[in-house]
Description:
Keywords: Coiled coil. This is Glutamine synthetase type III. By secondary structure, the chain is α+β, with helices and mostly antiparallel strands. Helices cover about 50% and strands about 10% of the residues. It contains 26 helices and 17 strands. Helix 4 (about 45-60) packs across helix 5 (about 65-80), helix 12 packs parallel to helix 18 and helix 22 (about 580-635) packs parallel to helix 24 (about 680-695). Adenosine-5'-diphosphate binds near residues 211, 341 and 344.
Amino acid sequence: MPKIRFQALEQSRRREHTTISESGKRSELFGKNVFNEEKMLQFLTREAFDNVKSAIFQGNKIDRKIADQVAEGMKAWALSMGATHYTHWFQPLTGATAEKHDAFFDILPNGRAMEKFGGAQLVQQEPDASSFPSGGIRNTFEARGYTAWDPTSPAFIYKTTLCIPTIFVAYTGEALDNKAPLLRALHAIDQAATGVAQYFDKNVRKVHATLGWEQEYFLIDKALVKSRIDLSTTGRTLVGSFSAKGQQLDDHYFGVIPPRVLSFMSDLEKECTQLGIPVKTRHNEVAPNQFELAPVFEEANLSVDHNLLLMDVMEEIADRHNFSVLFHEKPFAGINGSGKHNNWSLATDTGVNLLSPGTTPMKNLQFLTFFVNTIKAVDTYEELLRASIASASNDHRLGANEAPPPIISIFIGKQLNDVLDELEGVSKGKLSPEEKTELKLNVVGKIPEILLDNTDRNRTSPFAFTGNKFEMRGVGSKMNCAKPMTILNTIVAKQLTDFKKEVDALIDKKKLKKDEAVFNVLREYIKTCKRIRFEGDGYGMEWQEEARRRKLSINKNTPEALQVITSKESVALFKEMDVMNEVELTAHQDVELGAYIFHIQIEGRVLGEMVYSHIIPAAVKYQNLLLENINGLREVYGAAHKKVAEAQLNILEQIGEHIIEIKKLTDEMTDARKRANSMSMRNKKAQAYCNNVKPYFDSIREQSDALEKLIADEFWPFTKYREMLFSK
Ligand code: ADP
Ligand code: MG
């Protein structure tokens, strides 16, 4: 067996799991490393505390004097916790997080050392950001991007560094990150939803979007991952014959968690708890060595930060346990990939979930209002929502018969469909008292009861209503949730703004009562956005045809899906909602296209190297062994005695054919790459990579997998699927 594979297997076999220490109350550890309200009260002046609180809840600005006070308190707390450095923690468009650590330590003009950190350092920094993607917003020669403090997400200490969540913007104010647009979208939804929520309760002052993500991932022994250049450089296996045992038996799902994994999870959860990430559930997933982790939901901005932080922490703790955590959406062909469901809702400062039916008809009308408006928003902007989850790696998942299809539709369940159907039949204009009573008591009034037993779930739907929230299921496992959350909140904000205008007009001009006006507008919406509701099987071919008839967009790959971001309608939408201007949209699209190209390019290069430097040499080596054997047999039995070496000759021949074929395909793929590289337009280049380069990956893989089956195990250069997926 090639040395690298042998050593990796030996190493992984020898690993023992560390003992599990699940002792200690989680609640006592919760938020220990976070500069939360409790610490703020302790370390800040009353004035500074009040200012930070009003920045969080009213979005007020914090002036320099106050910032100095906050910095002073934050520093005192951080030093008391043993922190030595601080960093602005931000989310460049790469999709990951970035940080640049500075020591608190500084030298004064008189040569004495002291711990320095003031308002200036807290509020704004100018990292040398010239290497981050900016989509052309910032030319590298004027690398002026700066990070600015986001007081709505609390600072935290990770290891010995105080991390301050920040936005990252160009000198000219344009967003160079995923957080700045998200914050603007959350502001837009707050304004729009508060206006509508006040129809039902005058006391509502603020509405915030809530997000509860469910993170799926694979955990594979570190040495095994390292032994494969595809997995360690691209995050997925580019070749690999499927193992005899896969997930057919469904014996992994919700099964007993292996001890070594449990020990990792236990450490992870402890760290998360200290960082204030409210992790709650953990279980095995469908595929072998696949797991899921989910927290209690939180305000969307904080929840996004927590998911990004979690992914960083996971990598680090996995490493300590000699695991590699794979966030790629499709690390292994033939078994399920990983996603990150985004559960989303809207909550008021009065403690009400606006997507949760209440106990009175009026509360249910509020529920219906937000429910129908969300459906309408998704109907109007389905293509944008699809674009928000587009990436090279997620392309392997969307539509691959395990995750939702790339067509956005909404599942609400039979009972709610019936309610919407009944509402559709309500007469236009003023309602008779009888009609009103009937509606309120028998339609709207019955909603909470029907939801209780509305347990049927459709796992194939990309956007499903699950009792008191919508669940967006197409989000990729390694994605920054800020992207889909920015789009979703923007489109619902726009929809609620339009809704309010229409209702107000009916009240003012047609003199309708508020509830009548609401019913009237909702009824129109229900009528006009029917095409987005789909209860059937999203995996079937029939749905694709039906979706086409319904004129829903079907964008099967990332370059196609990204086009809509800069359409006239999108530009107008984002401008009206004050979320992104045209320059930013173009830049974000450009960065996404660039990322797509790089991904496919790297995969192509790695695959080429695997074929030429590993697969063909292994095949040739085995051919030589066969030749030696054939020649030996012929010497003993005589060349005329054909039958003796017949099987070996046949294998030799098959290998020969696959070598010819794999070489031919690899050369063609390399040529296609060269042609794609010569294109200067991002769009064209991404399409060329998608349509002319990528298709070779599968056919090369087929050849490689056939060779893997033919060649002696001891010669195969890559750790096999069964070795990676069933090691405990
Ligand atoms: P599953 O989809 O695996 O069956 P659930 O439907 O119970 O699981 O979803 C659980 C997730 O939904 C959790 O991450 C939880 O935080 C989130 N969630 C529950 N209520 C809300 C809400 N009001 N807003 C946002 N997320 C929520
Ligand atoms: Mg879910």
